[in-house]
What does this fold into?
Amino acid sequence: MEEVYIGKIVNTHGIKGELRILSDFLYKEKAFKVGTNIIVDYNTYLITSYRRHKNFDMITLDGYSNINEVLFLKGKKVYKKKRELHLLENEILDSDLISFQVIDKNNNCGIIKEIFYASPTNKIIRVEFASEVLIPLASPMIKKIDPKKKQIEVELIEGMISSEN
It folds into this structure.
């Protein structure tokens, strides 16, 4: 079963066992849905409440109603089974973009090798053409993402792909 990283428990909140999660996961409404499970250290926990507070996702877990009962989870990474996200056809995870083919208007083909953050809100894809090219994921250069074909169509700025080897 494929598990997807959705965030990290950075602290507790209040005395009733609420957990503070730092997450940049794109589909939070699906990942933290009440009545679904999360995975921490290979153990499954049922989410009983969810809310946003400042930059954090706040959850409580079934069977835990006191801060002392959840302290052991502090600092742990949180995962979700990919199939439990129930992603729609046009919803794709960043991790699934790795190895997608990237094609520009001149039919140059490249492969996505990495996705990273240049800032907390700016994701960059590293594409291997004849040379390496960095493209912001939320950019007008990205014209179409086709999950079925595992392909991304781009319109790059002239000179981004080096013609020299």
